[in-house]
Design brief:
The chain has 3 helices and 22 strands. The longest helix has 10 residues. The strands form 4 sheets. Strands 1, 2, 3, 4, 5, 13, 16, 19 and 20 form a 9-stranded antiparallel beta sheet that branches. A 6-stranded antiparallel beta sheet has the order 6-7-8-9-10-21, with no helix packed on it. The chain has one domain: Beta-galactosidase, Chain A, domain 5, CATH 2.70.98. The protein is mostly beta strands and 386 residues long. Bound molecules: copper (II) ion. The site of copper (II) ion has 4 residues, from strand 13.
């Protein structure tokens, strides 16, 4: 066990930071794996603490590793071994072009300024680490008794980088809430490509109706390598609630013991659970995955990677990108990775689509449009984490 942890630690050392000395303790903790400026250790006002390493990888760009969450007055729990973008697939509505924007994001990282990082710190001019308000954490009326009234404002930690890819500028955020949530999201801004097309594939921009800007999709894939207190025992489950057109709803659990692809469905969600890690009420600790905001783009047969919204695969180091994965002895796209192998160390791939129909407001500089998904703690703490 200790040897495996040591090996995992050595393999996960960020490319851009020095390796820990051989005598470093074998712990899957960010503080042992990286130092300034790659270490983020932030306690938010409610006492929630997040600790992680970041690195800018040549291929995937900003990657968070060894992510640990420490609820107030509680022990720390590791959540992710790593999280990164895994592809931005941009097919245009006329059928062409069809871009795969990730291949060397690291070299496309935009230099950030203080204006891009309000209240935060810039690292290497490429990564911003900051905190910001997230609105109400809770509000409970006192029913006329002010002493019973409860209200609190939430905060979140943000680690972000931006990339220039063609005309677009992508802002990639990893958001860690003081409620234990993780929200990976990406915003597209910069400029429209200026591609003209037939009216049925676009929308008229500018003066008159001579220029039709071509509509397109941004199909963004994230790769999430969950390790809840180490890689052992982690299981992915799918939850559905049967009873459509009746009064009742019944919970239906499907355990993914083998690699699989899954589709979004209105009440469906997934979770990564470790039955061996319990909260103080003895309930297994898990993180829920919710992908309800996707346009669910489905491409032709030769783009089978677009045919599912979530993929669960067995961990493999060479399976890094959802498409255009270049590695000997490894598949080329995520639909090929998910081939019924037994899953003992799950990696979850989340595909979130946004169909971009340009509008007059998208004139330069184009207002940012966001897409992402939510990862929420489920029974990590036995009670309200505030
Ligand atoms: Cu767009």
């Amino acid at each position: 066990m200790i040897l495996r942890l040591m090996l995992a630690g050595l393999l996960a050392v960020p490319l851009a930071s020095p390796a820990p000395p051989p005598s470093a303790p074998a712990a899957a903790d960010a503080a042992d794996a990286c130092g300034s400026p790659y270490l983020v250790d932030r306690t938010l006002p409610n006492g929630a603490r997040w600790r992680l390493c970041w690195e800018i990888r040549t291929i995937e760009g900003l990657t968070v590793t060894r992510v640990r969450y420490m609820p107030k007055d509680s022990r720390s729990i590791s959540v992710l071994r790593s999280g990164a973008l895994a592809q931005i697939h941009v097919p245009y509505d006329s059928g062409e072009p069809r871009y795969h924007d990730i291949g060397s994001l690291g070299s496309a990282a935009v230099t950030l300024t203080a204006a891009d990082c309000p209240g935060g710190e810039l690292a290497k001019s490429k990564v911003c680490v900051t905190t910001r308000p997230r609105g109400h954490a809770y509000l409970k009326d006192g029913w006329g008794d002010e002493s019973q009234r409860r209200t609190a404002q939430g905060q979140e930690l943000v680690v972000l980088a931006a990339y220039q890819v063609g005309w677009y500028t992508y802002v990639s955020e990893w958001v860690f809430g003081d409620d234990g949530s993780i929200t990976p999201r990406i915003g597209a801004t910069g400029s429209l490509a200026g591609t003209t097309t037939a009216p049925k594939h676009g929308w008229p921009l500018g003066v008159g109706r001579k220029h039709f800007e071509e509509s397109h999709s941004h199909n963004v894939f994230w790769r999430m390598d969950f390790d809840i207190e180490g890689r052992a025992r982690d299981v992915v489950e799918q939850y559905d609630f049967a009873g459509n057109r009746t009064k009742k709803r019944s919970l239906v659990k499907t355990v993914f013991n083998r690699e699989t692809r899954a589709l979004n469905s209105r009440m469906r969600w997934w979770r990564v659970v470790d039955p061996g890690v319990r909260n103080t009420d003895r309930h297994p600790v898990s993180w829920e995955i919710n992908n309800s905001d996707s346009a669910e783009y489905r491409g032709p047969a030769d783009e089978a990677f677009t045919h599912a919204d979530v993929y669960v695969t067995q961990y493999r180091a060479c399976e890094r990108l959802a498409t255009e994965n270049v590695a000997p002895r490894c598949g080329r796209s995520v639909d090929r990775y998910a081939n019924d192998e037994r899953v003992t160390d799950p990696v979850v791939w989340v595909n979130v689509g946004f169909h971009h129909v340009a509008r007059d407001e998208d004139a330069d500089p184009m207002p940012i449009h966001w897409q992402g998904f939510r990862v929420t703690p489920r029974d990590v703490t036995a009670t309200n984490p505030y």
